[in-house]
Design a protein that fits this description.
Number of strands: 17
Structural class: alpha+beta
Helix content: 25-40%
Strand content: 5-15%
Radius of gyration: 24 Å
Largest sheet: 4 strands, parallel
Strand order of the largest sheet: 7-6-8-11
CATH topology of the domain at 74-101 and 109-158 and 215-290: Rossmann fold
Order of helices and strands: EEEEEHHHEHHEHHHEHEEEHEEHEEEE
Shape: globular
């Protein structure tokens, strides 16, 4: 069986992924409870364990398990427990929700929303030799054909991430005289890198990481908060799927930071990689080139959810047709160029028409400097 993991992270026939139950050598701290006397452990034929107390009473013992959150919080390794995420967040889970919607009574269905990243859109466009805009429209057509209600572009959410990053950098720059942890600001929307920083460097590096949410999680907040209110639905009545270029985005969606305790739901319920969407297309026997295009939905005020999904008298608008968009400086998600241009104007009154990159040791390391009268500002 072919491995479902990203090939770039595999070495020959090996991969660096382990499940929480496999090869974990990190001891788990267990709080010692006051003993209530001597007890025996009895093992049944089926392998279950029972505690036999001195008075003869028996109690079945629960099997100890290491959860995904335990694995993410552990500093024993930096390996992603993606085998768990494959079962919790996969195109099969999306199928289950869509199938359940078909069987559900009117008013009991979940509103299914898919948010597509520009990177995944570009990859599928290259695979099918289509224009990225046409690919976005055909993907919208495909998802709605299988039962999805709304399809959004996460480039819209990236605007919020970029604006928040601009604001944060300017604020930190102005506070650097009073705080040793103000600069530098490290920005990354890569959950794997964040996980690495947390587990291996901790407080040494965490204060310098930007607090702005990634586009995926901004989209999650918009869908489960703003959009849910517009549709007169509670967050748990919406099933939100994102299409992302990397498996590690599943890690990000699973973090407890993005879990709504009140409604027991995540901002992003399921993350599909580009490869999983391609697999879904294959299983449905569909080629993007054969589909009729349909407009993407846009988060504003012009249409409503299907009547069966909303309460009586929903607001008259919340979504409109939208064209897919992109940002300058996409190589770093747009963070470098947008923050650099904004900071130059806001802090030094310098308008930067074109950002010039200077390679350092190799093309993977590039530097950008702001100069005024030949001096670095």
């Amino acid at each position: 069986m072919a491995s479902p993991f990203s090939g770039a992270l595999q070495l020959t026939d090996l991969d660096d992924f382990i499940g929480p139950s496999q090869n974990c050598i990190k001891p788990v701290k267990v709080a010692k409870k006051p003993g209530s006397g001597i007890a025996k452990i009895h093992i049944e034929d089926d392998g279950s364990y029972f505690q036999v107390n001195q008075d003869g009473r028996t109690q079945k013992l629960e099997k100890a398990k290491v959860s995904l959150n335990d694995c993410l919080a552990c500093s024993g390794c930096v390996t992603s427990a993606e085998t768990v995420l494959i079962t919790q967040q996969s195109h099969e889970e999306l199928r289950k929700v869509l199938d359940a919607n078909k069987e559900a009574a009117p008013g009991q269905q979940r509103l299914v929303v898919v948010s597509i990243s520009p990177q995944s859109r570009a990859s599928l466009a290259a695979r099918f030799r289509l224009d990225p805009t046409d690919t976005a429209r055909k993907l919208t057509s495909f998802f709605k054909k299988i039962g999805v209600h709304f399809v959004f572009d996460t480039a819209f959410a990236r605007n919020f991430s970029l604006l928040e990053s601009q604001k944060e950098f300017v604020q930190r720059f102005r506070e650097q005289a009073n705080s040793r942890e103000a600069l530098p600001v490290l920005a990354s929307a890569c959950p794997g890198w964040i996980c690495y920083a947390e587990k291996t460097h901790g407080n040494f590096i965490l204060p310098y990481i930007s607090t702005a949410r990634s586009p995926q999680q901004v989209m999650g907040s918009l869908v489960k908060d703003f959009f849910a209110q517009q549709q007169l639905l509670t967050p748990d009545k919406i099933y939100h799927v994102t299409v992302m270029p990397c498996y590690d985005k599943k890690l990000e969606a699973s973090r407890p930071d993005f879990f709504n305790q009140e409604y027991q739901t995540r901002d992003v319920d399921c993350v599909l990689t580009t490869g999983e969407v391609f697999r879904l297309l294959e299983e449905e026997g569909v080629s993007l080139t054969e589909l009729e295009p349909a407009p993407l939905d846009g988060l504003d005020l012009s249409c409503v959810a299907p009547p069966a999904l909303t309460r009586p008298s929903p607001r008259t608008s919340s979504v409109s047709a939208e064209e897919p968009s992109s940002h300058r400086g996409g190589g770093s998600g747009g963070y470098l160029e947008h923050v650099f241009r904004h900071a130059a104007q806001e802090l030094f009154g310098i308008h930067v028409a074109e950002v010039t990159y200077q390679p350092l040791r190799n093309k993977d390391f590039q530097e950008v400097t702001l100069e005024r009268e030949g001096q670095v500002a």
